[in-house]
TrEMBL record:
Its main location: cytoplasm. This is Acetylglutamate kinase. Substrate binds at residues 43-44, 65, 157. It is found in: Cytoplasm.
Length: 257
């Protein structure tokens, strides 16, 4: 069975019960299965909380956080520090052999700034899988924050969805994007188990898929095309379904390439 990359958002980090549920399911699963798992996380809510405490303004452009040079240290502290170590600490208390990383450890990825107006914001590309492969072979659970490094040695803020897609490509893994939604719902609010590009386009045209779900579904579709296999959107709120999800069952919506 291929390795599994789980992308978790900042909302999970702000919900101790949800974090407990996810890591409990992971611990239970790993006791009886030997599937390699990697967690990639964001933490926008952790960043916002820290910025608020420091009385710093939050600027956005096209929905992306502007990260000037005088703020990147704070973003790194929030994501690679607070968010990463909070998840790591919780995993370790559950006897999971977790290790905390950022996207540049072992030259796993390289970041490329894509809009100078956004400052220290970048996309990442896969580079060297050796460190991650060795950690997985030794049965570690890597927990990777969405902070990258460019070829000039600058720390960069990376969208967590894009970071997770890159890590999945790096080790040819399956990808599940965990969020606080059950998946994609039809016009009658029933979960749709599987969708392809044509069906997604139709549901967006019919205004069944709207707002933030459009972004989520399009990111999953791009990932499915990049990886050449289905990508799941699923909910972390249902601990009873998490073990089935880790085993490869569809519990949310699988977006097919």
């Amino acid at each position: 069975m291929k390795a599994l990359v789980l992308k978790v958002g900042g909302v999970l980090l702000d919900n101790p019960q949800a974090m407990d549920n996810l890591l409990t399911a992971l611990a239970d699963y790993r006791r009886s299965h030997n599937r390699s798992i990697v967690i990639v996380h964001g933490g926008g809510i952790v960043v916002d909380n820290l910025m608020k405490k420091l009385d710093l303004p939050v600027q956005k452009k096209n929905g992306l956080r502007v990260t000037p040079s005088d703020q990147i240290d704070i973003i790194v502290a929030a994501l690679a520090g607070i968010a990463n170590k909070t998840l790591l600490a919780k995993a370790l208390t559950m006897q999971l052999s977790a290790v905390g990383l950022f996207l540049a450890d072992g030259n796993m990825t390289e970041a490329h700034q894509f809009d100078p107006e956004l400052g220290h914001v970048a996309n990442v590309v896969p580079k060297n899988p050796t460190l991650l492969q060795q950690l997985l072979q030794a049965d570690f659970l890597p927990i990777i924050s969405s902070i990258g490094l460019d070829n000039q040695g600058r720390l960069m803020n990376v969208n967590a969805d894009q970071a997770a897609i890159t890590i999945a490509k790096l080790i040819d893994a399956d990808l599940v994007m965990l969020s606080d939604v059950d998946g994609v719902l039809d016009a009658d609010k029933r979960r749709i188990p599987e969708l392809n590009a044509a069906q997604i386009a139709q549901l967006i045209a019919d205004k069944v898929i709207t707002d933030g779900m459009i972004v989520k579904v399009n990111a999953a579709l791009e990932a499915a095309k990049d990886l050449g296999r289905g990508v799941d959107i699923a909910n972390w709120k249902h601990p009873d379904r998490l073990t089935a999800l880790l085993s490869g069952e569809i519990v949310g919506t699988r977006i097919q390439p």
